[in-house]
Specification:
195 residues; mainly alpha; Hypothetical Protein Ta1238, Chain: A; two-stranded antiparallel ribbon; 5 helices; 2 strands
């Protein structure tokens, strides 16, 4: 079997279920950006230092789920059952709550800085937000999507943010605050302004 098919030479790719789409189509953009995110998470896993190896299994599990998420976006009209399920979001929420509760209290934006692993996790957060924007654009074209996969991406960016902070905290690395930030994590006091 050859790795190349020549099918994409004219700018098309195959979707799950046998359909095809232009490589520039919103659906392809969505699952392509999820693939980019997964590669960044792979780099993050590969870059873990010896003291951070306890994160290996958790992050590899997330890579599996991120692949599932990309697969769901490559599947138009639910041509096969979707893979991202509500319990994945529950798992993320539990992790988010844990890491947030174990990190220093903040009331301002922080810069993506600190340890290499923390910065890599911030990059994962950024790639997740990009993937989410691309996924949401499918709704503007009335494309069928797995709503659980959209929720998964939304929680996933929060997960990477709190984990990046927690990794810095575990390493004794102080965070660098954005100097012009207002109080953002206590929104009851600052409903009128976000920056």
């Amino acid at each position: 079997m050859s790795i190349y098919t020549r099918y994409g030479d004219r700018g098309y790719t195959k979707l799950v279920g046998g359909g095809r789409a232009k490589k520039s189509a919103p659906r392809v953009q969505a699952y392509g950006s999820i693939d980019t995110l997964n590669a960044q998470l792979g780099l993050t896993v590969a870059s873990l230092n010896e003291q951070e190896n306890y994160l290996y299994a958790e992050l590899v599990q997330l890579q599996q789920w991120i692949f599932d998420c990309g697969s769901d976006f490559a599947t138009p009209d639910e041509k096969r059952p979707y893979k991202v399920e509500p319990q994945m979001i529950v798992w993320l929420e539990e992790k988010i709550d844990f890491y947030w509760s174990k990190s220093p209290t903040i009331d301002r934006f922080v810069l993506p800085a600190g340890t290499v692993s923390s910065v890599n996790l911030h990059l994962c957060r950024c790639f997740t937000r990009e993937a989410e924007r691309n996924a949401v654009s499918l709704l503007e074209y009335d494309e069928a999507v797995n709503e659980e996969a959209l929720r998964f991406l939304n929680r996933l960016s929060d997960y990477f943010f709190v984990l990046a902070r927690w990794v810095n905290s575990q390493a004794g690395q102080p965070e660098i605050f954005y100097e012009n930030s207002i109080s953002v994590f206590n929104r009851k006091k600052n409903k009128k302004e976000l920056f």
